[in-house]
User: Which sequence fits this backbone?
């Protein structure tokens, strides 16, 4: 169990470290403060998984460093029943000249195990890491995946009270990652607490009982994982808007066309989430605002969903849907497409186009590549494989 | 932080020096042996003869024994000071990832340097036995002398280590100052060759008293004068206490800076 009460941490920023001594001697402040964490309180119960979300610089690593005792807080207190391990130490505790076996001892001692404790679990560590005979080779000969396997094995076998899972876990291959996740669940079921720090929103939704969203060193949201992910996205959207204004010009350069008609604005929003992160199967509305610069008889508005590999997933347009558009010069219009996003979790982009009839090759008025981004996280659908879920009915006929 | 961890750091430290070499750990014995041989055989003839021209008389190997007894003690002292000073810098990645006690971390350097000293001193003793040089009962006092000297080294290095987090030049400066200190201490030469006018200032050099004590026991077979040693011991303890107090006040900043 971890109990954190009103934790605050600020960094005094000095122009150079010697200014700190000057400050003591002259008794005159020579720094400015950076409040990294402000008034953080939370509890992690045994057998619970707590997610921590936040953009870069929100205070996630400072919080973890305070929890592990590497940094000392300004105020507030931390209560941990037992030790806290994770992959924070990945590789750093390893002496690359020593063999894997020697490093198990060195690393184990480093994270606070006793010699006897290490000897008791050493065989299990070796077995879990799947290093086999390589355990007698120096660590410098290991691949990064092998180093990670060894580090994970030691950390999870150190019988910690809490295990920290962060991005470092994504190093290993798929097989070992799954094995790690199984082991982590097993650890949780046996009463261990888990702190999960990740940018993988889908994983946070799937794994965490509760989650915190950190923003500018404060807790912006604390509650269930789904709510946290939505809140996090709203923060990110706020950032995206700022970014969008900056990128407005460069974006236009990625678009082309005769500009006889123009796309002015476009955004996608989930029915429940209200933002551009939607659950698989959730209905979402794509709103496209456009303007005709000359009179147009048969205008067609279209979109194409692409996955992160740039592969076309699905596209259609107003002409194919039987709703062609007629606009006078200077007239504006908002077109809304509503569709269930039956897609697998991941990141997607939307490419939008205005053209005549169904043919964008001949009269392309405005084409905007990857104008809108959205993410599928969590699911309202039964589990499925592949990138798209096709509505499927099933019936068993006894023969 | 448990003792097993400190011992493991020391073991790793010794292993790392010669990691990958064919003779491996054997080198921790070969290097001191070669040093002793160089001092015993070569220096005794060259430098000893030179000093005799100043009117200092040495028996055969007399200068070798004089030199080695001083230089072994000095090496242990200097290496401890220099390495403890650099400790937070050397282990910064570890300190930034794992919760280590900053107070106890440099202890492993004391262990490593003690190991090297004991091996070297073992060879020195062997050399003395070979040339039929008499050992005496005051040798039992030597471990205590060593402890007092190393406590002083540790306290000094610890204080410098804390300061060097804020003023990085201290790490470099320490190396230079130790060189200077070496030549300010009668290790290679004898105090008799100095003009009498500056000798009183020499008494302010703590290392003079430690080095003299080593020689009083090994060469003269007498108990060294205890007053300066006891004073230095108290001074070392006070210095260490001051270092600990400073660390307590600055630990937060040290961890932030690292």
Assistant:
């Amino acid at each position: 169990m971890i109990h954190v009460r009103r934790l605050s941490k600020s960094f005094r920023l000095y122009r150079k470290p010697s200014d700190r001594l000057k400050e003591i001697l002259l008794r005159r402040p020579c720094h400015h403060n950076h409040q990294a964490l402000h008034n953080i309180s939370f509890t992690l119960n045994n057998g619970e998984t707590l997610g921590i979300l936040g953009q870069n610089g929100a205070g996630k690593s400072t919080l973890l460093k305070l929890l592990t005792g590497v940094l000392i807080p300004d105020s507030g207190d931390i209560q941990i029943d037992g030790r806290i391990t994770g992959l924070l130490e990945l590789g750093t505790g390893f002496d690359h000249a020593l063999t894997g076996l020697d490093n198990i001892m060195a690393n184990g001692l480093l994270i606070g195990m006793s010699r006897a404790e290490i000897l008791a679990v050493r065989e299990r560590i070796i077995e879990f890491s799947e290093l086999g005979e390589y355990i007698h080779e120096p660590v410098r000969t290991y691949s990064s995946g092998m180093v990670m396997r060894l580090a994970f094995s030691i950390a999870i076998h150190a019988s910690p009270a809490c295990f920290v899972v962060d991005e470092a876990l994504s190093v290993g291959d798929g097989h070992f990652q799954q094995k790690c996740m199984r082991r982590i669940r097993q650890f949780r079921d046996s009463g261990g607490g888990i702190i999960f720090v990740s940018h993988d929103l889908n994983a946070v939704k799937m794994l965490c009982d509760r989650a915190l969203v950190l923003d500018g060193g404060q807790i912006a949201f604390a509650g269930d994982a789904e709510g946290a992910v939505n809140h996090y996205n709203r923060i990110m959207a706020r950032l995206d808007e700022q970014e969008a204004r900056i990128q407005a010009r460069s974006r236009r350069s990625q678009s082309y066309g005769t500009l006889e008609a123009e796309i002015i604005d476009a955004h996608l929003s989930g029915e429940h989430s209200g933002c551009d992160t939607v659950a698989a199967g959730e209905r979402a509305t794509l709103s496209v605002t456009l303007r005709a610069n000359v009179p147009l008889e048969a205008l067609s508005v279209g979109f194409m969903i692409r996955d992160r590999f740039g592969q076309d997933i699905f596209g259609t347009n107003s002409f194919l849907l039987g709703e062609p558009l007629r606009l006078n010069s200077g007239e504006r219009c908002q077109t809304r497409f509503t569709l269930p996003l039956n897609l697998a979790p991941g990141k997607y982009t939307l490419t939008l186009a205005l053209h005549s009839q169904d043919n964008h090759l001949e009269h392309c008025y405005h084409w905007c590549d990857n104008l809108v981004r959205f993410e599928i996280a969590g699911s309202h659908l039964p589990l499925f494989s592949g990138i798209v879920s096709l509505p499927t009915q099933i019936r068993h006929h006894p023969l | 932080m448990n003792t097993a961890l400190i011992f493991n750091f020391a073991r790793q430290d010794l292993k790392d020096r010669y990691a990958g070499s064919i003779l491996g750990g054997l080198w921790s014995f070969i290097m001191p042996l070669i040093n002793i041989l160089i001092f015993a055989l070569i220096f005794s003839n060259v430098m000893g003869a030179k000093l005799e021209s100043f009117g200092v008389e040495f028996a055969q190997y007399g200068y070798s024994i004089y030199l080695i007894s001083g230089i072994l003690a000095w090496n242990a002292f200097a290496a401890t000071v220099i390495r403890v000073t650099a400790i937070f810098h050397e282990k910064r990645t570890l300190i930034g990832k794992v919760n280590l006690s900053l107070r106890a971390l440099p202890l492993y350097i004391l262990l490593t340097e003690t190991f090297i000293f004991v091996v070297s001193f073992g060879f020195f003793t062997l050399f003395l036995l070979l040339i039929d040089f008499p050992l005496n009962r005051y040798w039992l006092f030597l471990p205590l002398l060593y402890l007092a000297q190393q406590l002083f080294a540790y306290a000094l290095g610890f204080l410098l280590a804390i300061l060097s987090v804020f003023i990085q030049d201290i790490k470099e400066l320490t190396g230079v100052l130790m060189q200077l200190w070496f030549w300010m201490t009668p290790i290679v030469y004898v105090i008799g060759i100095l003009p009498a006018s500056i000798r009183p200032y020499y008494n302010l050099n703590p290392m003079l008293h430690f080095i003299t004590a080593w020689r009083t026991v090994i060469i003269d077979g007498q108990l060294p004068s205890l007053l300066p040693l006891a004073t230095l011991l108290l001074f070392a303890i006070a210095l260490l206490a001051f270092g600990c107090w400073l660390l307590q006040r600055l630990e937060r900043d040290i961890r932030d800076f690292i």
About this structure: Chain B has a mean pLDDT of 86. The interface with chain A takes residues 2, 4-5, 8, 12, 15-16, 19-20, 93-100, 163, 165-168, 250-253, 255-257 of chain B (CB under 8 Å). Chain B has eleven helices and no strands.
